[in-house]
Design goal:
By secondary structure, this protein is an alpha/beta fold. It has one domain: Thiamin diphosphate (ThDP)-binding fold, Pyr/PP domains (Rossmann fold, 3-Layer(aba) Sandwich), CATH 3.40.50.970. Helices cover 29% and strands 20% of the residues. The strands form two sheets. A ten-stranded mixed β-sheet has the order 2-1-3-4-8-7-12-9-11-10, with helices on both faces. A two-stranded antiparallel ribbon has the order 5-6. α6 runs antiparallel to α9.
């Protein structure tokens, strides 16, 4: 069996402003389970980056360990990539970002990689507002090791073996709001119409952007009693802010019959256009976001869409006042100015 896609593409395939079809943004055929939500997320990432007109080699895709962390192999095969130690993807991404802040950093993690062994690093990368898009492919179980409940499995949900989870789930969206993330969203792998513009908005946000994506595990967590299954998610999903992405100088129309519309500006001049279910909800208010999230949770609803964005917060590089030129492009004389420069620095502390 071949795991490589045929090279033939329709000669009239659409091209982006770089003159590229989606082919350079794709990867080999996935070896994940057929129907895995992670593959749908990969396809959405391909469409999002292609639509943003980002050259594939200007992207760095980062991951840890798990089914989710395996998925970056199946998109953007021309991009830089690093598969790190379990739960340590944020620190590796921080180091890469310090070295070259001009790349688009896409971190792909799972609910185990983020909410368990990687929780400490997840918390601090948000607090530091590192410029990256952090995608959690959340299926509520450890699909790589036979489907044990993860820390995001909802209390009362049933595993494939029939065991009821007695523990309260960690809500990554609520945690992100509490720890200062400047872009917080949730989506569903089966809703590409919502997910693609959310990804584009997150990738255009200058700071830490979290997208928690419910991505059902078809092998271990897609049965009756699971709250991360396809059927349960479709029945309980509630779009709190329907999003369309508006690039610079190019308007994308939004067809939405209900609610009001608001443009939220991003750092690069683009904006996120929001169509809200009620006019009281303000996606730029962290307090409103927390209240809305908790209200939906109490009603058994899964709030999706753009939940919170702060377009004015300083990102990691701005807080540290780092060099405008990436460190990997600075010459030796600049990086190693000699002992006299060190003497001047030490003198400043006396």
């Amino acid at each position: 069996m071949s795991f490589y896609k045929p090279k033939f593409r329709h000669p009239e395939s659409p091209k982006n402003e770089l003159g590229l079809t989606q082919t350079p943004y794709e990867g080999p055929i996935s070896t994940l389970c057929a129907g895995c939500g992670h593959d749908s997320i990969s396809a959405a990432i391909v469409q999002a980056v292609w639509g943003l007109n980002v050259e594939p080699h200007r992207v760095a895709k980062m991951s840890g360990i798990g089914c989710s962390s395996k998925s970056p192999a199946y998109f953007l095969n021309k991009a830089h990539g690093f598969n790190s130690v379990h739960g340590r993807m944020p620190s590796v991404t921080t180091g890469a970002n310090v070295s070259n802040h001009e790349l688009l950093y896409i971190g792909v993690s799972g609910d185990g990689d983020t909410a368990s062994i990687g929780m400490g690093q997840f918390a601090h990368v948000m607090r530091r507002n590192l410029n990256m898009t952090y995608i959690v492919e959340n299926n509520g179980c450890y699909g790589l090791t036979k489907g044990q409940d993860s820390a995001t499995a909802d209390e009362g949900s049933k595993s494939k073996k029939g065991r009821i989870n007695p523990f309260e789930a960690i809500d990554l969206v609520a945690l992100a709001l509490d720890l200062g993330a400047t872009f917080v969203a949730r989506s569903f792998s089966g809703d590409k119409e919502q997910l693609v513009p959310l990804l584009q908005a997150a990738m255009s946000h200058k700071g830490f952007a979290l997208i928690d994506v419910v991505s059902p595990c078809v092998t271990f967590n897609n049965h009756a009693g699971s709250t991360k299954s396809y059927d349960y998610t479709r029945e309980h999903v509630q779009a709190g802010a329907v999003v369309d992405f508006v690039p610079v100088e190019q308007e994308i129309t939004l067809q939405q019959d209900i609610g009001s519309t608001k443009d939220v500006p991003l750092f690069d001049g683009a904006s996120v256009r929001l169509s809200k279910l009620n006019q009281e909800y303000d996606p730029t208010s962290r307090r409103a976001a927390v209240t809305t999230l908790m209200n939906h949770k109490a009603e058994g609803k899964l709030l999706t869409g753009l939940i919170y964005v702060d377009p004015e917060a300083d990102n990691f590089q701005e807080m540290l006042n780092t060099s405008a030129t990436p460190l990997n492009e600075l010459g030796k004389d600049t990086l190693c100015p000699g002992s006299s420069a060190l003497d001047d620095i030490n003198q400043g502390f006396r």
